[in-house]
Amino acid sequence: MKTKFAETQADFFRIVRIRTEVFVIEQQVDLHIEQDQDDETALHWLVENEAGERLDFGKKEISSVHLTADLDAEMDEDIPPDEE
Question: Measured between alpha carbons, how far apart are the two ends of the chain, in Å?
């Protein structure tokens, strides 16, 4: 099994094509719901078996707010409290 992240435009369009086939064509989800403004900045991936058959795919929206909050929390853990 291998996970392929969308690192190139070709990877991205391949995953979007698969999502469109599954959600829009097969499940009849409205295209405007399936594809949104977060697609350009989200993390997209595809999981395939050794034969190249699709096992899973996904999209995770990445928010700079979440990344900043996570980084701040990690930094707070590394900084000892002020000594008075």
Answer: 55
Give which of 32, 8, 34 is closest to 20, Cα–Cα.
Answer: 34
What would the pLDDT profile of 30-51 be if each residue is shown by its tens digit? 998 998 888 888 999 999 999 9
Tokens of 13: 């369009």
Q: Are 57 and 65 in contact (CB under 8 A)?
A: no
**pLDDT category, 6, cuts 50, 70, 90?**
very high
Q: Is 35 helix (H, G, I), strand (E, B) or coil?
A: coil
Question: What's the Cα-to-Cα distance from 52 to each of 4, 47, 49, 82, rounded to whole Å?
Answer: 11, 9, 5, 55
